[in-house]
Amino acid sequence: MRRKFLVALGGAALAFSLAACSGGGAGSGGDSSDKKPADLTIGVSMPTQTSERWIADGKAVKEKLEAKGYKVDLQYAGDDIPTQSQQVDQMITQGADVLIIAAIDGTALSGQLDAAAAAKIPVISYDRLLLGNKNVDFYVSFDNYKVGVAQATALLVGLGLQTKDGGKGTATGPFNVELFAGSLDDNNTQYFWGGAMDTLKPFMDNGTLKVKSGQTRIEQAAILRWQQETAQKRMEDLLTSGYNDGTVVNGVLSPYDGISRGIITALQNAGYGKGAKKLPVVTGQDAEIASIKLINDGVQSSTVFKDTRLLAEQAVIAAEAFLQDKQPQANDTTTYNNKIKVVPAYLLPIETVYKDDITKVLVDSGYWSAEEVAAGQAKK
After folding, report:
1. Exposure on the CB side of residue 162, measured as CA atoms within 13 A
2. Least C-beta-crowded within 10 Å: which of 150, 172, 301, 378?
């Protein structure tokens, strides 16, 4: 199923040799290998500060680069495409030596990518793949298909249909579930959805899982810009239109913690979590501190942890390789087709976090402190 999904998403894989010599990218820039870090500037473009995840990413990339002596131009675009375009334009005209870009819309920066190539500036696509342009030199991310598999598996575990170790659970169903997807302008959304649907389809086909709303297409489930408020409104609409007959929602597939919190608010406002009306199993992603508290309190079921410290570190490693006129090391050269070329990628592992994993995975590793988990708020 995974292979079919990836072929459908990306088309036939191009040879890596074509990706490596795309014309305007890696290795074609001016030689900066003889310059000191203090003489080099890295432009870092992040999509928004409305998500604590992107705040943490920007901070981690900036700190790791500055620790090595580089100058860093970090900009947040406020989820506004023209703002991000203008910010990247400015980084190019001010002479950035490498660009690290997490795009709001993966298709919206083609002009900037062409300008970067003309100026011989390598471009690293950060977590969200830049699409439709040959001038994307490297991609750092997580295995996004596996993220979707992990989210769907967590839903099955929460419902009791599977055990954490992959065994068969004791529950039999049927269960009413609803499906949410991320923003369609984010390429990762397709991978998350593909992994989740491949995992849930057998249970939907045999009737164990029922999507009562009938909304099983990604276009119906998508939440523009991953907005919590939009997710809350959609969940409210689903409850109003489909669950006024006494039936209840047993589980919700959510691809991101902010969306999860919107879903949970709608459910709580509808009386879930009170008396015998149990809150459904709700999944998530990004281990945001507000959701970690909800998981610790038994409100949200799980989240997928993607250690952004490791992602930032990999972006820095890739940037340094380009600055030394070298190719960064890739561990995936076939999967991520941006509709023009296969972009060489370095993919990092993920981990599902349930309540009993919080201390071991997040607190002991220093990602969050026990005090932050208890408060549901990050320290300033």
Report:
1. 16
2. 172
Sheet holding 123-126, edge to edge: 71-76, 41-46, 98-101, 123-126, 138-142, 345-348
Give the CA distances from residue 177 to residues 253, 273, 281, in Å, rounded to whole numbers and listed in that order: 8, 16, 9
Contact 2, 329 (CB under 8 A): no
Q: How far apart are CA 104 and CA 188, in angstroms?
A: 12
The tens digit of pLDDT for each residue in 283-306 reads 999 999 999 999 999 999 999 999
Q: Taking a C-beta distance cutoff of 8 angstroms, is the pair 161, 366 a contact?
A: no
User: How much is the average pLDDT of 103-116?
Assistant: 97
* Residues forming a β-bridge with 92: none
Cα separation of 340 and 338, whole Å? 5
Tell me: pLDDT of 4 over 90.
no
Does the global pTM surpass 0.90? no
CA-CA distances (angstroms) from residue 334 to 18, 316, 341?
12, 22, 10
CA–CA gap between residue 233 and residue 220 (Å, rounded): 13
